[in-house]
Amino acid sequence: MCYGKCARCIGHSLVWLAILCIVANILLYFPNGETKYASENHLSRFVWFFSGIVGGGLLMFLPAFVFIGLEQDDCCGCCGHENCGKRCAMLSSVLAALIGIAGSGYCVIVAALGLAEGPVCRDSLGQWNYTFANTDGQYLLDTSTWSQCTEPKHIVEWNVSLFSILLALGGIEFILCLIQVINGVMGGICGYCCSRQQRYDC
């Protein structure tokens, strides 16, 4: 197995996951496609933490492109030795993976907190507040309580769906970056490829 090819596969996956995180986070700003709730500050505070845009999005592009760059057509080492440069590159990719772990971890934590607290909405008394803040996330299991939010329409479904997507995407990114930490260490210790023939195929 060539460790560089594995890293490249992880890198391409992270790019698409990061794009999806950015899209999901942006959609949180526009319940039902309307902009007035953002301008009136009637959105969950966790929407403003930019967990999908920064943590699971922009920050994830750095490790993604580092991983993609590990797979090149030549196997010449930058230190003047055939395998030395590649080993150094694989080990340095571990640092990029740690950045990815931090970003995806931030995305997961914020998304989980956003799910637990629930959205800001107008209740039956006409007041804007965190209607489900004191339920410890139990509202997620009792959909009959979601009707307590009268505006924006279907805001609970909107928030639950998008924060759940961010939670899942961030979790996948975290796992992929963790795999790359192991892959990078193995590649650095064992060599960029496991055999001379595989090095020629890289």
UniProtKB/TrEMBL annotation:
What sections of the sequence does the record tag as coiled-coil?
none
Report the InterPro entries cross-referenced here: L6_membrane (IPR008661)
Where it mainly occurs, coarsely classed, is membrane
Question: Superkingdom of the source?
Answer: Eukaryota
What are the transmembrane regions? 12-31, 46-70, 91-116, 160-179
> According to Swiss-Prot or TrEMBL, what is its membrane topology?
Multi-pass membrane protein
Q: Where in the cell is it found?
A: Membrane
Name one cellular component (GO) term.
plasma membrane
| Keywords of the record | Membrane, Transmembrane, Transmembrane helix
Q: Which family does it belong to?
A: Belongs to the L6 tetraspanin family.
Tell me the PANTHER family matching this sequence. Answer: TRANSMEMBRANE 4 L6 FAMILY MEMBER 1, TRANSMEMBRANE 4 L6 FAMILY MEMBER 1-RELATED
What this protein is called in its record is Transmembrane 4 L six family member 1
Native source species: Panthera tigris altaica (Siberian tiger)
